[in-house]
Amino acid sequence: MNKMVSVVIPNHNGGPTIGKCLEAAFSSAYENFEVVVVDDCSTDNSAEIIKKFPCRFIRLDKHSGASSARNAGARNSIGRILFFIDADCILQKETIGLAVNAASMHENTVIGGTYTKIPYDDKFFSAFQSIFINYSESKKPEPDYIASHAMIIEKKLFEKSGGFPESFLPIIEDVEFSHRLRGSGCKLVMHPEILVRHIFNYTLRKSLRNAFRKSLYWTIYSLKNRDLFKDSGTASSELKINVASYFLSIFFIMLFMVFRYETFLTAIPFITVFNLYINRRFLNSILVAKGGFFTVLSALYYILIYPFPVGFGSFTGMIKYFILRKGDS
Predict the structure, then answer these.
(1) Those residues with Cβ within 8 angstroms of residue 90's Cβ, 6 or more apart along the chain or in another chain
(2) 233-242: per-residue pLDDT in tens?
(3) d(C-alpha 181, C-alpha 173), whole Å
């Protein structure tokens, strides 16, 4: 079925990536589509780059966030199917066609794609993050949420839903959107063959900052939603066990330093082995994508460094949640 598709892209200071994003979109093998770009008051050269492409171009009057930009894009689209991506995502030639095929298989459904395992910038921290997201988002046919970097939904269903929440946390609005639609009777379905290649440009600092920020806001939302321990995409059970293992090991090391009982240290290898076993499928996904040496480096990063910003972000999120809750009471 040759349904009209509107590819909706929010942009805010996406100058370094939006050109690559649009070039890839207009190289699609699928022909019946439009690209709607909503600029959220960028202060860089984004607008000049976007105007070089045959887009439906919309500019918001004030900086309002990605949710407002996506909603504006949907309102000004003409396609029967909306395909939301981000300004730092690269569509594959076949992606739009695969999205249409998936949409034809489902009714009253939000359909999700994910990142390619190998990102546009194939360096360590970017590749680690891309594989982590690909694995976490695609491991369940019916996931807990659909990410807005590759979300497909019929326009009439989107309009009926009321769109993305515009007064919400700075991120994870797609999680709230997914939960709200599922609560109204919609299905969430993952099609892992629908892929976009992400431009991360991650350094160690950016990777750790992202882990802290995501866990902070996810914790606030999860406490409000009362599903803190749910296996939910990148907030997976594996990651939560990894973080718990990290801080439990630190706790035993501190006990050893205080009491000098070597028994406390003997617990750490058992904790580590258990953690590796729980995360074996994720590590195998890294192995298949990047090989043994990269997997060893990733395992060390994932087990020894990554849990700290995730745990610290979660702790900060808990504090913020209880402060906000106290202020509302």
Answers:
(1) 20, 21, 24, 120, 196, 197, 198, 199
(2) 999 999 999 9
(3) 12
